[in-house]
Amino acid sequence: MEVISTQNENLVIGRGGLYSAFPIPAYKILVAADAHIAKDILLCLISHLGLSKRVAYPSYTTIANETGRSRGSVSSGIRTLEDLGFVKKFQFRKENKKYNKYYLQDSCWNHDRMTAGALAYSPVVGRCGCGQTVRNGEVGLGQTSFHHWGCGDKVKMFSTRSKAFETSN
């Protein structure tokens, strides 16, 4: 069964994490996936977060007006956010009117909680001793080196300088 984060406590950023209420990892994934409509909708949902910092209630019309997108685009963008695991949407009725409730998931802020579909757009950052290339959310920092979450072996991280050198030659 799928786990949905509905807790109302504050967001906890792990050691070495950059604090931002703005979900930078999700934003980067959406840009890399060329899902700009979904990116705009995520920003709109963030602007409507309540005190719980995880739940937003804007209507499709509100989202469409604030993002400058059509209602059909809003529907498509929300589906993209759901498919990548960044948002869980629930519908409920109150006084014969239908409302949407959007729960922002931990995967918006933490690479290690992202779905395989979202990680597919994450950049490759190194190579594991097991021979696999390692993406951004698949590596952890040990006491002396980086380790692959999959097998636990050491990871040789690529540097941006060596990547720039390889592409210029």
Short description:
The chain is α+β, with helices and mostly antiparallel strands.
Please outline the helices and strands:
Elements: H1 24-32, H2 36-47, E1 55-56, H3 60-67, H4 71-83, E2 87-94, E3 97-104, H5 116-119, E4 124-128, E5 133-135, E6 139-141, E7 146-148, E8 154-157, H6 160-168
Antiparallel strand pairs: 1-3, 2-3, 4-5, 4-8, 6-7, 7-8
Tell me what the CATH architecture of the largest domain is: Orthogonal Bundle
Parts with pLDDT < 50 across at least 5 consecutive residues: 161-169
Q: What is the rounded distance between the termini?
A: 49 Å
Average residue-wise pLDDT: 81
Order of helices and strands: HHEHHEEHEEEEEH
Helix % is 25-40%
**Strand fraction band?**
15-25%
CATH topology of the largest domain: Arc Repressor Mutant, subunit A
**What would you call the structural class?**
alpha+beta
Return the CATH class of the largest domain: Mainly Alpha
Number of domains: 2
